Amino acid sequence: MIIVLKQHAPQEFVDMLMSSIKAKGVQIDVSKGARKTILGLVGNTSVIDREQIAGYEYVDKVIRVEEPYKRASRTFHPADTVIDVGGVQIGGKKLAVIAGPCSVETPEQIEGVAQAIKAAGATMLRGGAFKPRTSPYSFQGLQDKGLDMLCQAGKKAHLPVVTEIMSADKIDLFLKDDVDIIQIGARNMQNFELLKAVGKTRKPVLLKRGLSATIEEWLMSAEYIMAGGNRNVILCERGIRTFETYTRNTLDLSAVLAVKHKSHLPIVVDPSHATGKRWMVEALSKAAIAAGADGVMIEVHNNPDKALCDGAQSITPDMFARLMDSLRQLAPIVGREL
Amino acid sequence: MIIVLKQHAPQEFVDMLMSSIKAKGVQIDVSKGARKTILGLVGNTSVIDREQIAGYEYVDKVIRVEEPYKRASRTFHPADTVIDVGGVQIGGKKLAVIAGPCSVETPEQIEGVAQAIKAAGATMLRGGAFKPRTSPYSFQGLQDKGLDMLCQAGKKAHLPVVTEIMSADKIDLFLKDDVDIIQIGARNMQNFELLKAVGKTRKPVLLKRGLSATIEEWLMSAEYIMAGGNRNVILCERGIRTFETYTRNTLDLSAVLAVKHKSHLPIVVDPSHATGKRWMVEALSKAAIAAGADGVMIEVHNNPDKALCDGAQSITPDMFARLMDSLRQLAPIVGREL
Amino acid sequence: MIIVLKQHAPQEFVDMLMSSIKAKGVQIDVSKGARKTILGLVGNTSVIDREQIAGYEYVDKVIRVEEPYKRASRTFHPADTVIDVGGVQIGGKKLAVIAGPCSVETPEQIEGVAQAIKAAGATMLRGGAFKPRTSPYSFQGLQDKGLDMLCQAGKKAHLPVVTEIMSADKIDLFLKDDVDIIQIGARNMQNFELLKAVGKTRKPVLLKRGLSATIEEWLMSAEYIMAGGNRNVILCERGIRTFETYTRNTLDLSAVLAVKHKSHLPIVVDPSHATGKRWMVEALSKAAIAAGADGVMIEVHNNPDKALCDGAQSITPDMFARLMDSLRQLAPIVGREL
Amino acid sequence: MIIVLKQHAPQEFVDMLMSSIKAKGVQIDVSKGARKTILGLVGNTSVIDREQIAGYEYVDKVIRVEEPYKRASRTFHPADTVIDVGGVQIGGKKLAVIAGPCSVETPEQIEGVAQAIKAAGATMLRGGAFKPRTSPYSFQGLQDKGLDMLCQAGKKAHLPVVTEIMSADKIDLFLKDDVDIIQIGARNMQNFELLKAVGKTRKPVLLKRGLSATIEEWLMSAEYIMAGGNRNVILCERGIRTFETYTRNTLDLSAVLAVKHKSHLPIVVDPSHATGKRWMVEALSKAAIAAGADGVMIEVHNNPDKALCDGAQSITPDMFARLMDSLRQLAPIVGREL
């Protein structure tokens, strides 16, 4: 950590500040410039409250040199983390392909989709039972019943299941029904109480990036989960909010590289939510894999035109099978398998 | 609602679409252009699922003409809503000034601040007991004990209290301790389960705008609360996330005008969180009132340099007293009282 | 300037870097931490190329402590700059109110507006002769003839005139016609050749903030003009581009405070372009003055419904007279005159 | 075009509006709803001024159904445009790979890079002679001399050359020196006078996307060039400005798909400027090609650590050769050649 002092910081203040920092066992190197004095803090600076120091009148800026996350950082865990999900791995050489409908609607629908994506080579089944909707008047998902249908369909198709949780009081239900990956949606990325709650379990968690979350904030949310002892975190890039309105969000594939650089955690990409346009899904899935993602998450619906939510971004099982063919060709080019 | 069809939409599709819409009791006016056909839907279009129609292959776009919120809309409730909070009103001629520290730290601290701001003319006391922090390693607030200290301080100073809730399981505690306004923070603006939970109470709710929430999404979150039967919603503009990094966020004062135009709900402005800089607070408080806000929410700490969080944006009681003097001069110029 | 080296930077590299920096007369304080080495550069660091150093493989980051602008910085020019424009001052106690139509259309129109705003108390006349339009098929302004009409109208009404330049080859015309302030539009804020060209004149320049320009980039563009010897730069905040679509742009009033803090240059606010909505103009003009702006720039058209461009954001002369009344009441409250 | 009227629009106004529209030869279909009246305009609506109508007091909104660009639109030109650049084609099956240094520095440097990239399979040479720099104190390029060196190097290596123009008064020089593609930089995307000037030539123009330009605005800038008669426009996605600060900009690969969908013009991707990080260039080049781009534009410098600008994002000739190998493997997978 580096503290830049203002030009006219009185000596008493500097002395007070330095002794309070040293009292915490942190050493200080002082550089006196013509107009600014710079304090370089050396040692375990995690005990220093950056915000508090930045608040002092005579402090110009406080600059962090070390990352604020530890468990999520590659610095302290150089090897890629590979997470086992019901026998399927995410983060290793083999790509993860998570597919399924936005919402679970009927047992026939979810089982039909599950069989179709399994046949095409998907490795996991997704489907929403608890749906975060902007409007209170929109369909909110089949709730507990939907969760049941999803888990049944996953078992029948021999596919691990991924589904979103919206409040901590449902965790027991998710554990009892044996959901394989608990998803935290973009709107809950900084619902810290929910992060703490899933951090107490040992279930893999798929953590979507918030609509306007920086990569650092996203990794800090992963850190919340990991701080509770659950190291099984999978990140999911799903587009960020920008001024562009043609696509629902702007897919940020450089974030895949940044996450891989900063962290050892696996990362998958969701082109369906990122764009909101089904005709963009295949090309951006390929781009995601080419950029280095550990997998993709795709909305597939047996009858997208009749889907109860997000039909515009869902592809059909046939389109999904073609997408899988493309990914299968692409994978070896980038050192992956499918 | 307006549906624009693509150029080569087959007649069977158009017939199918139109009859399914008419079956819901909605009338259709058809305009056939050279390249596009436009369907104008007339009647109660809230029964039509916009997303689903937008998903059809032959539909070019679906344009909403009516707003998606009803209870929050000024169309159906032309008069300003005035909310009574423990005898103090928000939304009427008198300005609301909510002040207090970021975090409750000790009984002495919160009582000291409460007395000081009361003396300067504040109308409500704020203070955080449950703190949403980006890092799991930062101070998370004094929790239940902090809530107690805050409510005690409010009672002693005869000031209603405002404090943030972070999960639905704390609602009973908030009601028992007689919190006057339950705050929903920016990061929880689309925590729909929490919105539904406070919607079931009749306590006033202060709903902060999300970091990257559009005005429409914000009003939809208000609608979630109101749909549960709780009409006591106060909106709080606290800056949005943009590319500018000099201020923590970008305060959007045109949002005050937009909200007043679209909705009957009261709106206050929080310049402390919007900017993260204490020396900007007074000038932007004046700007907020000049723009038409119903009040401001200000961080005040008796010793900002030692504050356990957000010291950099807190002002001292003396600075607050000067700010109140400015607002008192300004209020009559814009048809307000303080 | 602070250079943070990576953990495993070889000693030869560190020696090479340090000697190349010292060769430029800059001193270095070294802090060796457990994992990072920090070099604090002391002296005239403007001779050091930050980008180049940041490019070295073993450099983690380069942090600038001093601002990159000099002539625009308040550090080296603590007093407010007051600019004289044909006898009217901008930047002093008296507020500047620049008003007029988006486009000059006819001599009658521009003269009519000029007389009306003069009567209401405006201090300068604006009007576009060269119009930057998103579409090549939209009205591009009356060009040279429009410039003539504007200057004539200004002379008749005894108002200095402000108008936009779009290419350097028109500078002679602007000087010959005796335009009082040359405006650089938002889309040309980083048209560096145009900045250099107006920097060679001594005419006051009104520099609009770019649609997505940071405050630092904006001040760097002012620095471009000032580096040419023209110190008469007036900044104009006109809204930035964000994800919000209800207003055309998002007016950033905290930028007014930031500019006043960082620079000695005067700043005015343009609520008409910022919002695109005429009914927001009066309230946001008041907010701008309350925030500390040195003036406002307002679109006024005698017949907004028939305006050849931007009618939706222009106010009528009557509305303008009422706005002036409000500002006249507000000015003394914030230590200003009008 | 669709015009939505407000609820209480008086009949005289509606009649006036409709007759003024019909006078321009445009037909109107009227839909009267319970609260809103909708006018559907049919015919050549390009003669209608949308902004002006939106300005009327009784108009709620005006919605464009047709795109505002014609010559750039795929609707009127369904086949992909293939542009011939000195014998090399952009927009066809063969991928374009444009490579070279940020700045031309010496004849040896630019010739060395040209030979190296040619050997590795690049199809064009880039290099800056006129450099847009944020600071007036940064290296501004070798100007006319640099242009000469670049064109010489291109001829010797048998590579067409691409270089940026910053003001219209240099066009004759660019034509005389036989530059093969004139580049318009991101900061000049809406420098309309420059767009008009290059529109009068018949030289291919590489038009970079502005830092915060929507896809529609970008295509409108292409339209400016094409409206002058120059149909040889190549678009270049180079990242947009968002709140994320880890990368210099956010590369928007969904824009590649959007442009291909909306327009017939070729599009290339510049991952060097988009990210500012050399280690991201190869992976994002692959992602760009996988997404469907017609080529990439890559910064290559023989000695990036000593580059006079943007060293941090330049790759070495060796890294470039490896990148070309990857692209050569990838191309056939996505139906391309290299």
Secondary structure blueprint with pairings:
Four copies of one chain form a homotetramer.
Chain A: E1 2-5, H1 11-22, E2 27-32, E3 37-42, H2 50-55, E4 59-63, E5 83-85, E6 88-90, E7 96-100, H3 107-120, E8 124-126, H4 143-157, E9 161-165, H5 171-176, E10 181-184, H6 192-199, E11 205-208, H7 215-227, E12 233-237, H8 254-262, E13 267-269, H9 271-275, H10 281-291, E14 295-299, H11 317-330
Parallel strand pairs in A: 7-8, 7-14, 8-9, 9-10, 10-11, 11-12, 12-13
Antiparallel strand pairs in A: 1-3, 1-4, 2-3, 5-6
Helix pairs in contact in A: 3-4, 3-11, 6-7, 10-11
Description:
The structure is a homotetramer of 338-residue chains. The first copy, chain A, has 2 domains: 2-63, 2-Layer Sandwich (Alpha-Beta Plaits); 83-334, TIM Barrel (Alpha-Beta Barrel). In chain A, the strands form 3 sheets. In chain A, strands 13-12-11-10-9-8-7-14 form an 8-stranded parallel beta sheet. In chain A, strands 2-3-1-4 form a 4-stranded antiparallel beta sheet. In chain A, a hairpin with a 4-residue loop joins strand 2 (27-32) and strand 3 (37-42). Chain A is built from 11 helices and 14 strands. Chain A is of the alpha/beta class and 338 residues long. In chain A, helix 10 packs parallel to helix 11 (317-330).
Quick tags:
homotetramer; 338 residues; alpha/beta; Alpha-Beta Plaits; TIM Barrel; eight-stranded parallel β-sheet; four-stranded antiparallel β-sheet; 18% strand
